[in-house]
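Human:
Care to share another protein and its fold?

Assistant:
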Amino acid sequence: MAWIRMLSAVVLVGGLVCTAVGCGEDSGASSSGALTTSPSPSLSPSFPSFSEDWEEPASYVYTLTSSEGERSLVGRFRVTVRDGKVADVVGLDESGRGAVERAPEEVPTIGRLLDQLGQARDNGADTAEASYAPDGHPVRITLDPDKDAIDDEQSYVISGYVIGT
């Protein structure tokens, strides 16, 4: 019975959030990223102001899981950023190691991922969504420039984010 009360509370809160931000079929939420589903209950819903307020630190480490689409940047990576540039990349799985061997320069900083998101929105992508952590850094970015095209999707999950390494 406790799970029913919990589910009811989640539905109620979700409805209130949608009402507060104007969710609806014409709201453009799926293409504007005004509100997206967070990948974990500990994360806040994403509003554009989170990414606008977040400033990328000069040095940090993060884990990138890149999937979807036919492209060279697919796999898991541990990325070290120093002075705003990727200083070191380690492929954490077979795909990641292969991508690092072929083109390590393709592994982005978090700022570059946000630039891709902004560019996709500017270009009218069918999907250009992000979810953000409470501190404002993105934890998930999903891009699909053309819903009718095959293998142009991009999905990025950002975890293990630590500032100042």
Q: What stands out?
A: The helical segments are 2-21, 29-32, 48-53, 94-102, 110-122. DSSP finds five helices and six strands in the chain. The two ends are 46 Å apart (CA to CA).
